[in-house]
Amino acid sequence: MTRKLIPFVAATAMLMAACAAPAAQAPAPTQAPAPTQAPAPTQAPAPTQAPAPTEAPAPTAEPATGVDAITLSKDKPTEILFWHRYSGGAQKFVEQFVEKFNAENEFGIKVTAEKIDGSYADLYSKINAAIQGGTPPNIAQAYQNQASFYRLDGNVIDLAPFITSKKYGLTQEEINDYFDFFLESDKNPQFPGEVLGWPTSRSAAVLYVNLDWLKELGAEEPPKTLAEFEELACKASDPANERYGLAWQNDISNFAALVFANGGRLLSEDATSYVFNSEAGVEALSLLKRLFENKCAVEIPSAERFGEQTRFAGQKVLFVMASSTGLPFYADAVAKAEKPFRWTYVMFPQKDPAKPVVDIYGASWSVFKSTPEKELASWLFLKAFTEPENIAGWANASGYMAVRKSAAPKAIEMVKNDERYKNFPEAAEAYARLYDMVAFGAVEAPVAGYDPVRKLMSEVVSAVAIKGEGDVKAALDKAVEEANAVLKENAPSSY
Amino acid sequence: MATASRKLPRSKQPPERKREQILAYALLAPSLLLFLAFTVFPIGFGLYISLHNWRLGPREFLGLGNYVRALTPGSEFWPSLGATLTYSLLAVPFQISIALTLAYLLFQKIRGKSLFRVVMFLPWVTSTVATAAVWARLYSPDIGLINGALRGLGLQPLRWLLEDKGVFTLIANGLGVTLPDWLRGPSLAMVAVVIYTTWVFVGYNMTLFLAGLGNIPGEMYEAAKIDGANGWQLFRHITWPLLSPTTFFVVLITVIGTLKAFNHIWVMTQGDNGTQTASILIYRQFYEFQRAGYASALAFLLSAVILLVTILQNRVAAERVNY
Question: If you measure CA to CA, which chain B residue comes closest to A466?
Answer without folding.
Answer: B162
